[in-house]
Amino acid sequence: MQNIIQQQLQQIEQKHNIKIIHACESGSRAWGFASPNSDYDVRFIYLHPIEKYLAIEPIKNQLTFPITSELDIHGWDLKKTLQLIHKSNATPFEWLQSPIIYQQQTHLAQQLWRLCAHYFNPRGNVHHYLGIATSALQNLNGRQIKIKQLFYILRPLLCACWCIQHKQIAPMTITPLLQLLPADLHKQILELIDFKNTVVESHIIEISSNLHDYITTTTNYIKSQIPQLPELNFTATQLDTFFINTLKNCTSHEHQ
């Protein structure tokens, strides 16, 4: 599948006259808890030729493609990505630390990752992850839930706790996040990850009472911590400098 994805990315570059800076896996395969029927969620950041940014007509700041049973591909223009980093959006933070890379301009991706660290706003990220978990919690019926939805609750809660406790961007993969769990729950979740590798994502499980209690307690803890987190605001100076320098170093057909 990796070869197919890389071929499709090359075709996208040629068809749309763009240069892909960073292309990665962004879903459960990158998070570390894929199921046999998990699709491939490919996300990429791209750069237009410099003439496009100087033209009167607005550039196309995202590219979407029909989703198949196996493949979901979506890309953001570099300027859009930088605007979201300025807002401390967690999505580019995750893309840029994905463990599965399909294509990359390494030096540019590394610079982007350093910018992410500078523009990290704990309060905004905690709100983001709590929102994902709260939405997924609506699928919890007593202690029964689809196994996919359980991890859509658990991982965001752990990400929010990481942001609160470490004041850092949360890891994308679940393994380091599990360090935040009590030992008994850590073991339970590892077993559930192994089990998820063998069943479809719609498989319904019944979670233990202590895991259910942990989810409730942790959700309330995160809510109580949000007012204590500072609301940070950033200037766009470093992002502007990066964007301008990147454009200066490219031509309409080649990006260094």
UniProtKB/TrEMBL annotation:
At the highest ranks, the source species' classification is:
Bacteria, Pseudomonadati, Pseudomonadota, Betaproteobacteria, Neisseriales
Q: Which UniProt keywords apply?
A: Transferase
The record's section on InterPro entries has:
NT_sf, RlaP
Q: Per its UniProt record, what Pfam families does this chain match? A: RlaP
Q: Does the keyword Transferase apply?
A: yes
Task: Identify this protein by name.
Answer: Nucleotidyltransferase
Q: Is the keyword Hydrolase assigned to this protein?
A: no
Organism listed in the record = Snodgrassella alvi
Q: Which domain of life is it from?
A: Bacteria
Question: Which GO molecular function, any one, fits this protein according to its record?
Answer: transferase activity
